[in-house]
Write a structure and sequence with these properties.
- The chain is mainly alpha-helical.
- The chain has a domain of 43 residues.
- It has 2 helices and 2 strands.
- A two-stranded antiparallel sheet has the order 1-2.
- Helix 1 packs across helix 2.
- The chain is flat and about 35 Å long.
- This is DUF6203 family protein.
- Keywords: Membrane, Transmembrane, Transmembrane helix.
Length: 65
């Protein structure tokens, strides 16, 4: 459901130049955040590694403690 809402919001924002700027800024910020996490040896948000095969497995969304 979360991904569906993200897609709907993105489609609405793409229609305007200001919306495109907002999407681009969010994309760059998220990219930098993931790169920093990888440099520190952490997994990016929403992904954990399955120990048995080393493949990426999505993390259940919700509150983290």
């Amino acid at each position: 459901m979360k991904n569906f809402l993200k897609a709907v919001v993105a489609r609405r924002l793409v229609r305007t130049p200001i919306g495109l700027a907002i999407l681009a800024a969010g994309w760059f910020m998220g990219r930098r955040r993931r790169q920093r996490a990888l440099r520190r040896g952490e997994e990016p948000d929403g992904v954990r590694r399955d120990d048995s095969r080393g493949r990426a497995v999505p993390v259940r969304s919700g509150r983290r403690r």
